[in-house]
Design brief:
The chain is of the alpha/beta class. It has 10 helices and 17 strands. The protein has helices spanning about 15-25, 40-50, 60-65, 80-90, 105-120, 135-145, 170, 180-195, 315-330, 335-355, and strands at about 5-10, 30-35, 55-60, 70-75, 95-100, 125, 150-160, 205-215, 220-225, 230-235, 245-250, 255-260, 270-275, 280, 285-290, 300, 360. The longest helix is centred in the C-terminal third of the chain and has 20 residues, at about 335-355.
């Protein structure tokens, strides 16, 4: 029996939308039915570049949502616009793929959560590293008991974000970007939760957060481009601290340290450390009781999360997973409700900077 193809509206025609569209085109159960952007011309350009014909082109989300045959909305707009777009799509009864970060305040998180619950639609948030091959291999090893019970995890997001990224002009501001940890470091926060839990599709529940921040780059009008290894003068400044270090205590007893460093002069890196009572992981190297007589680290021959380029990210696996969730009427392990928990760590850090005291979760 043939399954009806799900019609998808891609809202936002920027850099990341290219990968959503490509993944949707390759999935046998989806087709891109419409593209919406700030201007119809932008939507038309993205459609033409992707080889799409006979798709709806819009510059207004409400009108795009009225098109017949739309089952799913992929929200690829800047983070400070997500809340309004997610609420509108949920109220229209559409399933949602939501780019991270999903919102810029706790109030926005609550608003989106309530709208999705009321509508009863399925969601997935693009903490896309959960589908990175290294992440999947480590989780499979954890399921098999190779590390035992994790008790301490470290994850770091090291990226000198700047004008090389098309979304930087909004993300660099305190009003629309909020913090380095929210803009990019939330990937590392989610990884911390993911590996602090032993289940293959389980993320740990944070219960306490303490954070400090610093660095040197805030307000500077000199910027490094890690892609070209060059410097830019008179660049628009970052309005928040580029370095944040966060300690997290989890309900299962595990602890973690997560950092974001947007000040670093180096190419993008995503270091990972996992310590369990039967084994450890350093990036793609494993030491485990499963390898008796081990005299050196076992290196996993797998793709690492070592690039900030969206073409390197496993969007295909994320989209395929979400389509299966919709067709099977099950919730994603990375749905909005779960993603909010990762975001809470970010906003708890912001509260800690103000009080100097540990913050108890949940906040939403």
């Amino acid at each position: 029996m043939m399954t009806k193809a799900l019609g998808v509206l891609v809202h936002g025609a920027g850099w990341v939308s290219t990968q959503h569209i490509a993944a949707l085109q390759r999935n046998p159960h989806t087709h891109v039915a419409a593209i919406c952007s700030k201007t119809v011309e932008e939507a038309r350009h993205r459609a033409a570049e992707s080889g799409l014909r006979d798709v709806g082109l819009y510059d207004d989300l409400d009108r795009a949502l009225e098109q017949t045959g739309i089952d799913v909305v992929a929200v690829c707009t800047p983070q400070h616009l997500h809340c309004a777009h997610v609420v509108a799509a949920a109220r229209a009864g559409k399933h949602l793929v939501i780019e991270k970060p999903v919102g810029i305040s706790l109030d926005e998180l609550r608003t989106m959560r309530d709208a999705v619950r009321a509508a009863g639609v399925k969601t997935v948030v693009s903490f896309v590293l959960r589908w990175n091959p290294l992440f999947q291999m480590i989780k499979a090893l954890m399921r098999d008991g190779a590390l035992g019970q994790p008790y301490y995890v470290e994850a770091d997001y090291l990226s000198h974000n700047g004008s090389w990224w098309s979304g930087w002009n909004a993300a660099r501001t305190r009003e629309q970007g909020v913090s380095a940890l929210l803009v990019g470091g939330c990937h590392a926060v989610d990884a911390l939760r993911w590996f602090a839990a032993p289940g293959e599709y389980e993320a740990a529940q944070p219960v306490e957060v303490f954070a400090i921040r610093g660095g040197y780059r805030k307000g500077l009008m000199r910027e490094y481009n890690p892609l070209s290894n060059t410097w830019i003068e008179n660049a628009p400044p970052m309005e928040y601290e580029g370095l944040e270090v966060v300690l997290v205590k989890f309900a299962n007893g595990a602890m973690g340290k997560v950092s974001v460093n947007a000040d670093c002069i180096m190419p993008y890196r995503f270091p990972l450390r996992i310590f369990g009572d039967r084994g450890s992981v350093f990036d793609n190297r494993v030491w485990s009781h499963k390898f008796p007589g081990q005299t050196d680290w076992v290196t996993l021959p797998v793709i690492l999360p070592d690039s900030s380029d969206v073409t390197h990210h496993p969007f295909q696996a994320e989209i395929d997973h979400f389509v299966e969730c919709i067709l099977g009427d099950v919730e994603s392990h990375c749905n909005l409700g779960d993603a909010i928990i990762s975001h809470e760590v970010v906003f708890a850090a912001q509260q800690c900077y103000q009080t100097g005291r540990p913050v108890t979760l949940p906040l939403v």
